Amino acid sequence: MRKQVAIIGAGPAGLLLGHLLRAEGIDCVVVERQTGEYVLSRIRAGVLQQGTVAMMERLGLDARMKQEGLPHDGFNLADGERLIRIDIKALTGKQVMVYGQTELTRDLMEASEERDLEVIYQAADVALHDIESNAPYITYTKDGAEHRIDARFIVGCDGFHGPSRQAIPASVGQTFERVYPFGWLGILADVPPCNHELIYAHHERGFALASQRSQTRSRYYIDVALTEKLEDWSDDRIWDELSIRLGPDAAAHITRGPSIEKSIAPLRSFVFEPMRHGSLLLCGDAAHIVPPTGAKGLNLAASDVHYAHEALTAFFRKADNDAIPAYSSKALRRVWAAERFSWSLTKLMHRFPEDGPFERRMQLAELDYIASSEHARRVIAENYVGLPV
Ligand code: FAD
Ligand code: DHB
Fold first, then answer.
1. How does pLDDT run across 277-329, given as a tens digit for each residue?
2. Cα gap 317→25, rounded to integer Å
3. Residues 72 and 96 sit within 8 Å (Cβ to Cβ)
4. Which ligand is nearest to the CA of 296?
5. What sequence ranges are listed for the domain FAD-binding (predicted)?
6. Which residues' Cβ are closer than 6 Å to ligand 2?
7. Beta carbons of 173 and 272 less than 8 angstroms apart
8. Which residues line ligand 1 (CB under 6 A)?
9. What tens digit of pLDDT does each residue of 179-193 get?
10. Residue 387: which pLDDT band, with cuts at 50, 70 and 90?
């Protein structure tokens, strides 16, 4: 098979890029290791920035999102005693959309056939070849047969553990990493949310987040030590801990119910530079990871896709040879801005094992400053809704 672009990974980044390229008449294919059902079973992000929503609008794939998504004008930070509301609408003129990654991915997946976007699921042993040339190709096996796709460009949208980043020689790449000493234990339950807006809580027992997927489905997180085992966390124990950490007002409105999903995700900050080598471009988690505080992971993947789509379109439609070399630095500027915000909000809202009473007071003093200063709230709001692309 010969295509202009071969995309590895059918997560949000790969599918979004595939649709944007097809809309420009660029011939591409998406190759995914898992089944479609498996991709949709992974419960991940829940908050979309306006830029991500705009990409779905541009594709004309926003109908269900407009109907079922929940636009939010603000969110809250909590310091164990009070809620500090960040009025993002008043401070930035923008909103965020509560709409699960699963739903966004489903919308992209369901539209692929009608829009002639070929997605090959259950492709095993995907490998990249000749990425330093103008004629790279990928190979994979499916149903026992070996396949090859020749392309002008390969785009690695294959997440943190995929083969694309690893295809770039170590001598040309640089890695920046911070692994945090805790993970987020998430619970999904069909119960109404405890608050109409999100609450990120800093409590002396640890972090908690009250989020939602709809008016009848809640998503909550608490941070736990990496040594904790999921089987030691019964639903009741999680609800008890959430009730303490979110504070009495939110606790009074928590509706308990059986979990329909429970998982622990480690927290990491990670950036790989450059995001392009030869004929290979990286997008999303393949190139970078942010800790989830700040809801940036999926939105950052979407902004990479925006730049990659722009560069590939300039190459194929306008014969512009400068756009592809500029991709990495353009995307990385925004990546580092999101890394900084996610790292700073993680530091503000979590208890680190090495921290003592002084560091805790520093966190509380910063939260108090945020509560008292509109400037401080504006800085947070501006970053939360996403800096301009
Ligand atoms: P992915 O969604 O990881 O998609 C990559 C795709 O590539 C997958 O479908 C994978 O199967 C495929 N792939 C991998 N290897 C291969 C291969 N060898 N061959 C072919 N295909 C391959 N962000 C938030 O903002 N909020 C959250 O609450 C949140 N929770 C998260 C929880 C977890 C457990 C994880 C891992 C991430 C979470 N994130 C969260 C981050 C967010 O979900 C990601 O940033 C987002 O999924 C990135 O999209 P992506 O398309 O780049 O990567
Ligand atoms: C969700 C996850 C986040 O990381 C976040 O910052 C906000 C919401 C969620 O899964 O709903």
1. 999 999 999 999 999 999 999 999 999 999 999 999 999 999 999 999 999 99
2. 9
3. yes
4. 1
5. 4-342
6. 45-47, 198, 211, 219, 292-295
7. yes
8. 8-14, 31-34, 39, 44-46, 101, 123, 126, 157-159, 161-163, 265, 284-285, 292, 295-298, 301
9. 999 999 999 999 999
10. confident
Which residues are 207's β-sheet partners?
Answer: 202
Q: With 80 as the cut, is the pLDDT of residue 194 above it?
A: yes
Model confidence at 80, pLDDT cuts 50, 70, 90, reads confident
Per the listing, tokens 């040339």 go with: 133
334/325 Cα distance (integer angstroms): 16
Selecting among 99, 137, 140, 200, the annotated active-site residue is 200
Determine the length of the chain.
Answer: 389
Q: What is the complex's ipTM, to 2 decimals?
A: 0.96
Rounded to 5°, the CA angle 28-34-37 comes to 100
- pTM exceeds 0.95 for this model: yes
> Could you tell me where in the chain the CATH 3.30.9.10 domains are found?
180-267+351-384
Confidence of residue 133 (pLDDT cuts 50, 70, 90): very high
Strand partners for 220? 187, 210
Q: Token digits for 97?
A: 């959309």
Please state which CATH number belongs to domain 5-71+99-177+268-346: 3.50.50.60
List where CATH 3.50.50.60 sits in the chain: 5-71+99-177+268-346
Q: How far is CA 54 from CA 61, 121, 150, 388, in A?
A: 10, 27, 32, 12
| Mean predicted lDDT score pLDDT of the chain | 97
Residue 268 · residue 289 · CB < 8 Å: yes
Q: Has 292 been annotated as catalytic? A: yes
The CATH number of domain 180-267+351-384, selected from 3.30.70.1450, 3.30.365.10, 3.40.50.720, 3.30.9.10: 3.30.9.10
Q: Is the bond preceding 274 in cis, omega lying within 30 degrees of 0? A: yes
Which one of the ligands is nearest to 193 CA? 2
Closest CA to 79 of 304, 361, 339: 361
Q: Indicate the top mutation candidate among 158, 187, 264 to test ligand 1's pocket, ranked by most ligand atoms within 8 A of CB.
A: 158
Cα–Cα distance measured from residue 221 to residue 196, given in angstroms and rounded to the nearest whole number: 16
Q: Which whole-number Å values give the CA distances from 100 to 31, 69, 208, 329, 359, in the listed order?
A: 23, 8, 19, 29, 34
